[in-house]
Structure formats: structure tokens, C-alpha cells
């Protein structure tokens, strides 16, 4: 049996396991309280509090080194140590093994993308199995409707994709797992405006479908019309929380914190 056929067989078995009741309605998609995180002896996060409600897009802003990526990594259990509380759809993550976090319905798209160069676009999409999250994974045809570029390049190896197409593939790949809370790290960085716009439209469509999204961004213009709320980090702490409707009243603060 080929590697791809074996992967498809495994996905079919995982899909059967996933036919369970989803998380309780009304429970926050993500609730972080007094989160501290370390890399070795380096204390990076200092009491972070953050909430993402179901169907909400939240943007975590800040300069490089502020702790934004570390916050995402701490959710996934990828820091040396962490304390406090991280609840995903009502379930506590602190203390869980790393491999259990994705099964709670979390999809993490790191800045590195991690596309398999020797596999085609379609093979990259088929590789992750559907997990027993309580949600159904997004079908391939729905993904192609969301990212038409990937349909056009479905037989192209990952090494032949542009940077923007690789970023689309990295986001699309986690949708197949059954994730409903998406952690997206700097997905607009270094991309052409037309690709950034396409990613923005995809995020809006995913939000309309009920996905909850935590977006780490430095591109304020990209996130300003996407996010419902914004948190600003500095020195491993949340220093400001703003609703989108209140952005204009905080322009001076944002300029000081972000240099925008």
C-alpha cells in the first residue's frame, strides 16, 4: 500500500472516531488566565490574560520579541515550562501532553509553514489525519473553493509553489484536521498585496463559517478590518485591549506601542 493510501486509510479511521458531540455551546474557544511561560531559564510571558470567543477573530499585536509567538507556542505546549490556565473549548490544556492539544480542536499554523517540498499540493493537504475533535474537517473541495490557487496547483510539488501559495497551503492544511480554533502566526509577512488580500478574504469566510481565530500580526492594516478585538503585547504582558469599533480613539497609543 502506498504512503498516500495508508494516510487516507488512517484518516478514514480517525474520522469514525471523531463522530462525537462537539464542545458545549457558549463556551469560550480560548481562555488564557495568568499565563507564564519559559524557554529554559528565560521567563518570557508574565501573567497573560486573553479570551477568544466562538466565531470571533482576535488579533495579537506587538513588536518583535513582545511574546506573541510564545503565546501561541505555549498554547500548543511548545515552551520549556508554563503555568497559569489555558482552556480550549472549556478544557484545561496545562498539564496535557503536547499530542493531545490538537485533538481539542486547535490548528496551529507557525510562521515557518513546514510544507513538504517533495509532495504535491494535494498530497500535502491529504497528509494530516482528521482528529477526534468533535468537529468535521473541511473537505478538499471546500478548501479549493476557499483557496482557488491551490486547486490550480494541486499537482505541483511544494518546492514549486510561490511563498504566497505555500502560506495558503499551510493554512489550508490545518482545516482538514477538524480544528475550529485557528492559531495563525504572521501569515501575511513578506507576501504580495494580492496574496494578502486573498488570505484576508479566506479568514473572513472562515469566521462566517464559525471558526474562532487568534491572529498574530505586525501588519496592522491587514488585521484592522479582520479582527473583532485586538490585544497589544509588550515585554511578555498584555498592555492594551481594544475593540475594533474603538480603534480610532486609540491611534496615539497604538503609534507609541507599535510605531504605526
Description:
The chain is of the alpha/beta class and 260 residues long. It has one domain (3-258): 3-Layer(aba) Sandwich (Rossmann fold). It is built from 10 helices and 10 strands. It has helices spanning 3-17, 68-75, 98-101, 121-126, 140-146, 148-152, 163-175, 193-208, 220-224, 251-258; strands at 30-39, 42-52, 57-61, 81-88, 91-92, 106-109, 181-185, 212-216, 229-234, 237-243. It has a 6-stranded mixed β-sheet, sandwiched between helices. It has a 4-stranded antiparallel β-sheet with strand order 2-1-4-5, covered by helices on one side. Strand 1 and strand 2 form a beta hairpin. The chain is globular. It starts with a helix and ends with a helix.
CATH superfamily: P-loop containing nucleotide triphosphate hydrolases
CATH topology: Rossmann fold
What's the story with the biggest beta sheet?
Answer: 6 strands, mixed
User: Unreliable runs, pLDDT <50, ≥5 residues?
Assistant: 1-22
Notable traits:
260 residues; Rossmann fold; 6-stranded mixed sheet; 4-stranded antiparallel sheet; 10 strands; globular
Q: How is the topology of this model organized?
A:
Blueprint: H1 3-17, E1 30-39, E2 42-52, E3 57-61, H2 68-75, E4 81-88, E5 91-92, H3 98-101, E6 106-109, H4 121-126, H5 140-146, H6 148-152, H7 163-175, E7 181-185, H8 193-208, E8 212-216, H9 220-224, E9 229-234, E10 237-243, H10 251-258
Parallel strand pairs: 3-8, 3-9, 6-7, 7-8
Antiparallel strand pairs: 1-2, 1-4, 4-5, 9-10
In short:
The protein has ten helices and ten strands. It has 260 residues and is α/β, with parallel strands linked by helices.
Amino acid at each position: 500500500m502506498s504512503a498516500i493510501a495508508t494516510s487516507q486509510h488512517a484518516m478514514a479511521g480517525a474520522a469514525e472516531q471523531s463522530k462525537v458531540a462537539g464542545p458545549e455551546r457558549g463556551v469560550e474557544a480560548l481562555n488564557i488566565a495568568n499565563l507564564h511561560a519559559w524557554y529554559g531559564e528565560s521567563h518570557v510571558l508574565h501573567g497573560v490574560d486573553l479570551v477568544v470567543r466562538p466565531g470571533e477573530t482576535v488579533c495579537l499585536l506587538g513588536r518583535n520579541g513582545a511574546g506573541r509567538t510564545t503565546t501561541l507556542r505555549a498554547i500548543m505546549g511548545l515552551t520549556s515550562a508554563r503555568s497559569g490556565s489555558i482552556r480550549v473549548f472549556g478544557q484545561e490544556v496545562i498539564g496535557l501532553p503536547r499530542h493531545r492539544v490538537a485533538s481539542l480542536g486547535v490548528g496551529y499554523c507557525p510562521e515557518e509553514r513546514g510544507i513538504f517540498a517533495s509532495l504535491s499540493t494535494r498530497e500535502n493537504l491529504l497528509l494530516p489525519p482528521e482528529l477526534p475533535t468533535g468537529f468535521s474537517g473541511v473537505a478538499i473541495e471546500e478548501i479549493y473553493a476557499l483557496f482557488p490557487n491551490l486547486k490550480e496547483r494541486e499537482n505541483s510539488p511544494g518546492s514549486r509553489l510561490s511563498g504566497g501559495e505555500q502560506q495558503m497551503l499551510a493554512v489550508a492544511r490545518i482545516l482538514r484536521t477538524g480544528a475550529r480554533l485557528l492559531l495563525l502566526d504572521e501569515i501575511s509577512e513578506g507576501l504580495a498585496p494580492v496574496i494578502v488580500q486573498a488570505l484576508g478574504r479566506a479568514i473572513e469566510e472562515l469566521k462566517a463559517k464559525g471558526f474562532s481565530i487568534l491572529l498574530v500580526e505586525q501588519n496592522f492594516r491587514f488585521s484592522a478590518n479582520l479582527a473583532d478585538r485586538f490585544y497589544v503585547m509588550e515585554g511578555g504582558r498584555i498592555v492594551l485591549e481594544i475593540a475594533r469599533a474603538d480603534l480610532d480613539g486609540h491611534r496615539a497609543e497604538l503609534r507609541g506601542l507599535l510605531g504605526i
